[in-house]
Design goal:
The protein has 316 residues and is of the alpha+beta class. It is built from 11 helices and 4 strands; from the N terminus they run E-E-E-E-H-H-H-H-H-H-H-H-H-H-H. It is globular.
């Protein structure tokens, strides 16, 4: 396997694929046409030196992905909104609509962040704090908080995986992984090869979130403050650092063939069985369309697997 650097995200009836400074979103419209939109990947930070700093680059990448991902979700959902008696918009109306969509995007992102932090970090802390009535051990209380956090996370993943609409998103998520695995294992990018590729990948966002949960346990076990109020503040302040460390772990795991790394990545890969589903051939077509818009997989195979093919041909 050779890491390609391709990343992606499933959206409503489509997939976003990113490589380098570009990303493309391919969506299958209700009339079955595949429409593709390609844009430059603009980071919130322009300095290349800052973006190259370990830990910091991880948090920035997470924040950038959140912005682009929300934008792509809104774009894909626009094809499935009911528009009765829709009339063509003037340039002024289009400009106003774009500004409104941008505001809605940032509000949606902010609300999602607040809910996620409150549910997976603040709530477990307060629930575990009730144990102070029966024990003074900070280690026991912190471990209880970790168990509650992981339980909430697994329950959330399990619950949404049962929703019909989300299951289709997870099928596209599977198509995204299969495309990346197909290319990174040296196969031509076509429907047949993609369908037989794995739907699990070490660089998946699901694995990233699991690492966030696990790494937060380590941080909170060793970084302690006496004040209950400060404990909450410290947890919030450490989130960017935890996200940055988790990114570095995922980044390393995605490029490593180490058996130890494979073992450490296994829980995240298992969890992906909930967040990815086997896609249909038409979903794979959408994923391939998105990949080919931003990535020359033929050149990639030539550079990384040509010698292997030659050796295979020479082998007795």
């Amino acid at each position: 396997m050779k890491s390609s650097g391709i990343g992606g995200q499933a959206v409503i009836e489509g997939i976003m694929m990113r490589h380098g400074e570009e990303y493309a979103i391919a969506v299958r419209k209700p009339d079955q046409e595949i429409i593709v939109k390609k844009e430059a990947y603009k980071s919130i930070i322009k300095s290349k030196k800052i973006k190259a700093l370990p830990i910091i680059r991880g948090f920035l990448a997470f924040f950038d992905s959140l912005i682009v991902g929300t934008k792509c979700l809104m774009y894909s959902s626009s094809f499935y909104e009911e528009e009765e008696d829709a009339k063509p918009l003037t340039k002024e109306q289009q400009s106003k609509q774009e500004r409104q969509d941008k505001v809605i995007m940032y509000i949606t992102m902010a609300i999602s962040l607040v809910i996620s932090i409150a549910l997976f970090f603040v709530l477990p802390y307060f629930v575990a704090s009730f144990l102070r009535r029966i024990t003074n051990s900070e280690t026991v209380i912190t471990l209880a908080e970790a168990v509650i956090r992981l339980a909430l996370f697994f329950a959330y993943i399990t619950l949404i995986s049962q929703m019909k609409d989300i299951q289709r998103v997870f099928m596209y998520h599977g198509a995204e992984h299969k495309c990346i695995n197909c290319v990174e294992h040296g196969m031509d990018l076509n429907v047949d090869n993609v369908m037989k590729s794995s739907r699990e990948h070490k660089r998946c966002g699901t694995s990233f979130l699991l690492f966030v949960m696990v790494i937060s346990i380590i941080f909170f076990l060793f970084i302690r403050v006496p004040s209950p109020f400060l404990r909450v503040i410290v947890r919030l302040l450490l989130l960017p650092v935890i996200a940055g460390v988790s990114y570095e772990v995922i980044r390393f795991a995605g490029a490593s063939e180490s058996k130890v790394v494979d073992i450490l990545s296994k829980p995240g890969m298992v969890l992906q069985r909930l967040t990815t589903k086997e896609p249909s051939a038409d979903m794979v077509e959408v994923a391939i369309t998105a990949v080919e818009e931003v990535f020359d997989w033929r050149e990639y195979l030539e550079e990384n697997f040509a010698n292997k093919e030659d050796k295979d041909k020479e082998a007795p």
